[in-house]
């Protein structure tokens, strides 16, 4: 059983991850004020001291604790650590993602360090901090406290000596004019970047209370240890994650029986880690584990092997998906150059692009755009010097024969791919069940409309239009719509790429390439007099360049017709996404 301490954005994200397992877990908050509907989780509200937490963990046979509480909840973090150490239970700390500390901001370690060379200060550090800031008034600083407009918060503010004139509220649209503002280092999910931006626009001096590290490292250990994905603190062993993918992977490792299937990493993610290890080795730093960033900013760590300076490899961490690259060895060789350019070179086992339409120039190694960006960002975090990057895949030529690479013009090896960095388990039964679980969660939290998307590109396109809860259907459009119909969603929007759309238009509600491929004869029937153009394409995306708008309207209408058969009630919208 898993116990989550939440009440935060990270806590909400943790529940979304755990709901995917379809198993019971517990979710604890201090006040019970967070609006959250759980499908499989059991909610517990009210603060727990050490004794109460110890009793609960024993009674409910808790085997893992997820600490997703606020970063400034120091006492709670300490209590969790003490209980976990006493009962020998592992802890996952779900941390926030923090932007680099801006040197133009005044950073302080404690409230006693707030500068006094200001006339007025807007304190946004919470009602509990009022008593710790009262000393500023004796120094001639006028302090305005911004708090929640709740009866309990106002009463507590008065108890600490704040007058009504000193209070303003988050619910108010206007912000008082002050010389300076005091913020907590609350991370990206805490709106820190936005708060700093507004303060700068108003010409306010920005003072930030730094977050307190969870623990001091044991004697003799470097403080960098705390940045490790699993470090030994003063009490217990914390595993640090800062996103949903890392949380799921850590739960899979610590409680292997919780999720029915395990996730993995894409070839692009593995290549990125190998590149970072290779580059670090040229700088005199060798590591057997590398932390790298996914496209969404979350960081993960995976084992690496440095073979020699400038050369490192990763054995692909695979999911329970039937993946042809599972367990393969991906090697990166990095050579520093006298330029500032980052160039990608073809290594053994990586294919070469021979046809247009893949988003890569002909003649380039088949390292897709997202992995390239991940690698470039990783390099630029370490150096501005130019690099030649060569990616190789052991037995890549043989593996490529089991793929459709040759049909799209990638010859001589596999492609280095991945838009999110994560491979989800995609066995038919498990994937369809995961779709159902996601929809059940959406229904449980009150959603009446959902977006069904084929992947990250279509999700991003749909999210740009409006805020909508998106669920990935993979290739199972028909099954996803059947589930949506059975759960009585009133509105469904399908965002689909043209490659899947032409298959769906022909009536294939499962668009997997192993079952159905692009049918040129069918497309010619839709094209009418433009049939000669169809003969010239290799990939469906090339249709965007050669066909008129009327062609895509016909595709869209046919998609709608076939989807209506399995989603007969409610509003249905089909959006073909141009890539």
Task: Give structural notes.
The chain has 579 residues and is an alpha/beta fold. It folds into four domains: 2-97 and 226-254, Rossmann fold (3-Layer(aba) Sandwich), CATH 3.40.50.720; 106-209, Rossmann fold (3-Layer(aba) Sandwich); 264-423, CbiD-like, CATH 3.30.2110.10; 428-577, no CATH class. The chain contains 19 helices and 28 strands.
Topology:
Elements: E1 2-5, H1 9-19, E2 25-29, E3 41-45, H2 50-59, E4 64-67, H3 74-87, E5 91-94, E6 106-108, E7 120-123, H4 130-133, H5 135-138, E8 142-147, H6 151-159, E9 167-169, E10 180-184, H7 192-201, E11 205-209, E12 230-232, E13 237-241, H8 244-254, E14 264-265, H9 267-282, E15 289-293, E16 299-303, E17 305-308, E18 311-315, E19 329-336, E20 342-346, E21 352-353, H10 369-382, E22 387-393, H11 396-400, E23 410-411, E24 422-423, H12 428-444, E25 449-453, H13 456-465, E26 470-472, H14 477-486, E27 491-497, H15 498-505, H16 520-527, H17 531-535, H18 543-546, H19 549-564, E28 571-577
Parallel strand pairs: 1-2, 1-4, 2-3, 4-5, 5-13, 6-11, 7-8, 7-10, 8-9, 10-11, 20-22, 25-26, 25-27, 27-28
Antiparallel strand pairs: 12-13, 14-24, 15-16, 17-18, 18-19, 19-22, 21-23
Helix pairs in contact: 1-8, 2-3, 9-10, 12-14, 15-19
Strands side by side in the biggest sheet? 3-2-1-4-5-13-12
What is the CATH architecture assignment of the largest domain? 2-Layer Sandwich
Structural class, by secondary structure, is alpha/beta
Q: Compute the average pLDDT.
A: 86
Low-confidence stretches: 216-236
> Cα distance, first to last residue?
43 Å
CATH fold description of the largest domain? CbiD-like
The count of strands amounts to 28
Rounded radius of gyration (Å): 27 Å
Helical stretch count? 19
- Into how many domains do the coordinates divide? 4
Shape: globular
The level-1 CATH class of the largest domain: Alpha Beta
**How helical, in percent, are the residues?**
25-40%
CATH superfamily of the largest domain: CbiD-like
The proportion of residues in beta strands is 15-25%
Largest sheet: 7 strands, mixed
